[in-house]
Design goal:
- This protein has 451 residues and is mostly helical.
- It has a single domain, classed as MFS general substrate transporter like domains (Growth Hormone, Chain: A, Up-down Bundle), CATH 1.20.1250.20.
- Helices cover 80% and strands 0% of the residues.
- It is built from 20 helices and no strands.
- The chain has helices at 3-24, 32-37, 40-69, 71-82, 86-114, 116-134, 140-156, 160-170, 175-237, 260-264, 267-284, 290-297, 301-313, 315-329, 331-350, 358-370, 375-386, 392-399, 401-421, 425-443.
- α3 (40-69) crosses α9 (175-237) and α9 crosses α13 (301-313).
- The N and C termini lie far apart (54 Å).
């Protein structure tokens, strides 16, 4: 046997030995041996696939969040045309938040099994169906069904529950940064959708605007699916022979591998649930009714939508900065900083008493917008830190129910408070209180759970 034959036979036995050791030692981190034997070109391919996946997640979440956040603009149009009360008009949004939280465990389990591309196609189809139907509504129950259920489930298939588990495995050392990039799409979507949708409603009417949104989704979904297919090819090409071709399996999973049943038995699970609950309450007691509040004060609708949109645009930088900071100063300190800035923004809204106070409206929009969604990367990254493993999507989905309950109660509660008192003042004060509760709950997560 020549030298080349010896090398080939030696490589064969080394590979067989490595495979056997991985089987008999399941407690070792998955992929630990493969990383050392992986050539540089393969490592570069994995990185390229991960970045494509991050770009696709940002684009998909931008599309879904932009569609869903535009309801705040439609709310004003519905009030003017149908003369519904604020609480009635908020029902569809509250139902949407409940459905978003309730469907998150299912979506999380589906992404663990099916992958993001199939969910993206399913979600895009549901969004198109809901938007087309919304153009012909005449009663509250119709918008509740179409927006609150159909479109919400569709948007959830293009949301954080789908992308966070995948990205947390690809960007283990920079998990906060990667999640914050995706989360920043939320602010970008709000910033773009507010003035754009208000302009479309002013020119096409709200029914025509729904049809335009449906056409946009129909054009965007095939492009997003193609982007994820390309990311999958890069990840598969970089996977060593004999390993799983799944993009999520290209990076090693942290240890221990938590299950949902184990996580629920820890106080940390319920503290994270409370953080999501309080954050949803604090945020949506303000955000859904921002434009209606400004119009009631006397600001022009298009002007107020533009100001709030520019403020929301700051969330891109705010979310990325706070998420990246969480990798260095800790998740707790980063989240509390974001809570504090949001509280300042709510205080500025409380001080507005007339349409002459443009500077207070700008300050409210900038401070509140800067940290809209900025706690998300710290919360989701903290969840991945505390409960790593292959069931992270399911665990995160169940915890997200807290966000759905809080957001639903906050959105409807602000409308009910206005109908009862004729003012949003009490709603804004409660927002500050719940943000403080969120700070306390997050600070209690400093120590890891005991298994």
């Amino acid at each position: 046997m020549g030298p080349r034959g010896v090398v080939r036979r030696t490589g064969y036995f080394v590979n067989e030995w490595t495979s056997a050791m991985n089987k008999v030692r399941p407690s070792a981190p998955v992929g630990a041996v493969r990383q050392h034997s992986q050539p540089p070109s393969a490592a570069q391919s994995v990185s390229r696939g991960a970045w494509f996946m991050l770009g696709g997640a940002f684009a998909a979440f931008t599309v879904s969040a932009g569609i869903m956040h535009s309801y705040a603009i439609f709310l004003v149009a519905f009030i003017e045309e149908f003369r519904w009360s604020r609480a009635e008009t908020s029902i569809a949004y509250s139902v949407s938040q409940l459905v978003a939280g309730g469907s998150s465990p299912l979506v999380g389990a589906m992404v663990d099994r099916l992958g993001p591309r199939r969910l993206l196609i399913l979600g895009g189809s549901l969004l198109i169906l809901g938007l087309l139907g919304s153009a012909f509504i005449a009663a509250i129950w119709q918008i509740v069904v179409l927006y609150g259920i159909v479109m919400t489930i569709g948007a959830n298939c293009l949301g954080l529950v789908v992308f966070v588990p995948l990205l947390s495995r690809q960007f283990v050392r920079h998990r906060g940064m990667a999640i914050s990039v995706v989360q920043s799409a939320n602010g970008f979507a709000r910033a773009a959708s507010a003035p754009l949708v208000q302009f479309l409603i002013s020119t096409l009417g709200w029914r025509g605007t729904y049809l335009a949104q449906a056409a946009f989704i129909a054009a965007a979904v095939p492009l997003l699916a193609a982007l994820f297919r390309r990311a999958g090819r890069y990840a598969i090409a970089s996977t060593p022979v004999g390993s799983s071709p799944s993009p999520a399996a290209a990076a090693p999973l942290p240890s221990p591998n938590w299950t949902l049943a184990e996580a629920i038995r820890t106080p940390h699970f319920w503290l994270l649930f409370a953080v999501y609950l309080f954050t949803g309450l604090g945020s949506f007691l303000v955000s859904l009714h921002q434009l209606a509040f400004a119009v009631d004060i006397g600001f022009d609708k298009l002007y107020a939508a533009g100001v709030l949109g520019i403020g929301a645009f700051l969330a891109i930088a705010g979310t990325i900065v706070t998420g990246t900071l969480s990798d260095y100063i800790g998740r707790e300190a980063s989240a509390i900083l974001a809570y504090g800035i949001s509280i300042v923004g709510v205080v500025c809204a409380l001080l507005i008493t007339s349409a002459d106070q443009h500077w207070l409206l700008w300050l409210h929009a900038c401070f509140f917008g800067l940290t809209w969604g900025a706690r998300g990367p710290a919360i989701t990254a903290k969840t991945a830190d505390l409960f790593p493993g292959g069931r992270l999507g399911t665990i995160l989905g169940v915890i997200t129910i807290g966000s759905g309950i809080g957001s639903a109660a906050g959105a409807w509660g602000a409308g009910w408070i206005f109908d009862f008192s004729g003012s949003y003042r009490l709603a804004f004060l409660l927002s500050i209180l719940f943000y403080i509760c969120g700070c306390i709950a997050f600070w209690a997560l400093r120590r890891p759970p005991v298994r």
